[in-house]
């Protein structure tokens, strides 16, 4: 049995003469204008909601390092004021033991205000520095794990301890890093 060549299709001859192979390849492989009528989004719980651009912008702003740092500063200020109020009520400050033992309410309130403002300022600075440093470290590393808190604690403790000298800075860095590591470990164990 002898093999015969099939007849050539006249449309195919016209197609090859016009060099439409490029157009066919672009259509089959690289068509970027293909519209999808039904997008499939996996559901976890509840209805599927696609975020608008405004929601994405607000979410990006809330997750930014400056916002986290400012928020920690405000929360630290409030927590510090509460701690200052508590500690000033436990130990009143009597400066002169020979003076009259009865303090006026105005003096007590003035001492409470000074204690509250001192604690509030210190906690605000501590919260802002720690949160900002941790966020920057997390952004630089590209990971969210216990090491970020440890490194941030070391940097924050070192910066705060440097006011007392190099030795105090080193002890502050080591102590705050250890404290941050323990807190991170406790929070992760409790959450899982």
List the helices and strands and how they pair.
Elements: H1 10-17, H2 21-28, H3 53-62, H4 65-90, H5 105-141, H6 146-161, H7 166-191
Helix pairs in contact: 4-5, 5-6, 6-7
Family: Belongs to the Tim17/Tim22/Tim23 family.
InterPro entries: TIM22
Keywords: Membrane, Mitochondrion, Mitochondrion inner membrane, Protein transport, Translocation, Transmembrane, Transmembrane helix, Transport
Q: Strand percentage, roughly? A: under 5%
Quote the distance from N terminus to C terminus.
Answer: 76 Å
Record field, number of beta strands: 0
Q: Could you give a short account of the major beta sheet?
A: none
Structural class: mainly alpha
**How much helical structure, as a percent, in the residues?**
55-70%
Number of helices: 7
Order of helical and strand elements: HHHHHHH
Shape: elongated
Residue runs with pLDDT of under 50 for 5 or more positions: none
Rg over CA atoms, rounded to whole Å, is: 34 Å
| Mean pLDDT score | 83
Please, could you describe this protein's structure?
68% of the residues lie in helices and 0% in strands. By secondary structure, it is mostly helical. The termini are far apart. It has 7 helices and no strands.
């Amino acid at each position: 049995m002898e093999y015969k060549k099939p007849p050539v299709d006249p449309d195919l001859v016209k197609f090859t003469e016009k060099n439409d192979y490029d157009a066919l390849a672009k259509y089959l492989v690289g068509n970027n204008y293909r519209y999808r009528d039904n997008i499939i989004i996996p559901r976890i719980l509840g209805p599927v909601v696609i975020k608008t651009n405004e929601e994405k912008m607000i979410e990006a702003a809330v997750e930014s390092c400056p916002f986290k740092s400012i928020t920690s500063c405000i929360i630290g200020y409030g927590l510090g004021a509460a701690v200052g109020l508590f500690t000033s009520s436990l130990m009143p400050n009597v400066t002169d033991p020979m003076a009259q033992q009865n303090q006026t309410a105005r003096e007590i309130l003035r001492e409470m205000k000074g204690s509250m403002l001192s604690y509030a300022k210190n906690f605000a600075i501590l919260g802002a520095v720690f949160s900002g440093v941790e966020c920057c470290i997390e952004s630089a590393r590209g990971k969210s794990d216990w090491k970020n808190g440890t490194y941030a604690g070391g940097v924050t403790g070192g910066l705060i301890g440097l006011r007392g000298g190099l030795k105090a800075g080193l002890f502050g860095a080591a102590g705050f890093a250890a404290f941050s590591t323990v807190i991170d470990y406790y929070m992760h164990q409790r959450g899982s």
